[in-house]
Amino acid sequence: MRGRLRTRLVRGAVVVTACLAILVLGVVTASAGDGKDQGGSTTTDTGGGGTTFYSRVTYTHRGDGNGGSFQWIVSSDANWTPPVCWYESMTPADFQAEIERRYYTAGNDGADSVYDYYYQVQSKLNEVKYHQGDDGSWWVLVWDEKVLNRPHAPMCPYDQGWLWQGPGDPPPPQPVSPALLAQAAYGQMTLPPREVALSPVAQNQKVNLPTYVSFDDGIPQASVTAQVGPVAATVMAVPYSLRVEAGTSYAQPGSCDYAFTPSGRRYVVDSADEPCNVTYQKATSPGGTYLLQARITWRVTWTPTATPQPGGRAMNDGFSDSRQAVSVQEIQTVNR
């Protein structure tokens, strides 16, 4: 191991071995915040005993899907995944301070193997004085821990913990940029899982009566800004269409689609005057229900700015879903 590390450090970069990857590579985390329309910036540290690098990316959420109740956006492209890792730049002074912090923390914690590892790292980096005074930048690999912890998250494709980039040197494989931050912000987008309001109400649906759907106070647009230093990107999601499915074959039609219309700063749907409304044709059994499903499609765009702007570049549409149980009864009539 010592020989491999020495060879790679002489080349100006460290390849992180699997057993030390979690200690050497960076971790970036962000929580959904309670920003509402005023926005809220959050960067959450998870500890790590002084052995993890924390990214400087912050995520600012706007829209009421980011409080206590929210769901992650689902991309319309089933194969798309947000980036799990990328490289961020550090000055020689900041990079030296980070390596020294990890070295002394490992010593204080009695972590002998980690301490020995950073001793080797320091020795080699001291030979080049961390490139103090040279033109260029250190690039450090960071992870998005929230993405990594999701089911079916892809693996980070990079194993080089850091590298020096001087004039004329090739850039790191995934440097932070507005386009990358837009992808990261999309991956942090949360949306309100708002149930549709039903008329008649869900507990008192009637056979052969249309089910009208609406939202009590409309749906706001949502946005997330990802920013590190002067580099930023803002992703904006606007509710575009609503699809309602009856949840049973005993309905005609079994599904209907509606378009959102703007109303002030929110977007609304009201199917009372629409030609399509789900109509149940069979009552539920005593104590039984049908599961009505509603899916909102969101149009998503991004701009290389720190605030939402119109006319952004298109990204994958997003989905948010809600489900609610409905009870359907026969209409009772009185014969005289």
Structural notes for this entry:
Helix content is about 20%, strand content about 35%. The strands form seven sheets. Strands 3, 5, 7, 16, 17, 18, 21, 22 and 23 form a nine-stranded antiparallel β-sheet that branches. The chain is of the alpha+beta class and about 325 residues long. Helix 1 packs parallel to helix 4 and helix 3 (about 90-110) runs antiparallel to helix 4 (about 110-125). About 35% of the residues are buried. It is elongated. The chain is built from six helices and 24 strands.
Task: Give the ordered list of helices and strands.
Answer: HEHEEEEEEEHHEHEHEEEEEEEEEEEEEE
Q: pLDDT under 50 segments (min length 5)? A: 1-51
In round numbers, the mean pLDDT is 82
Q: How many helices in DSSP terms?
A: 6
Give the oligomeric state of the chains in this entry, treating copies of one chain as homo and distinct chains as hetero: single chain
E-strand count: 24
Morphology: elongated
How much of the polypeptide forms β-strand, as a percent range?
25-35%
* Radius of gyration (Å): 26 Å
Q: Gap between N and C termini, in Å? A: 94 Å
Q: How many strands, which pairing sense, and closed or not: the largest β-sheet?
A: 9 strands, antiparallel
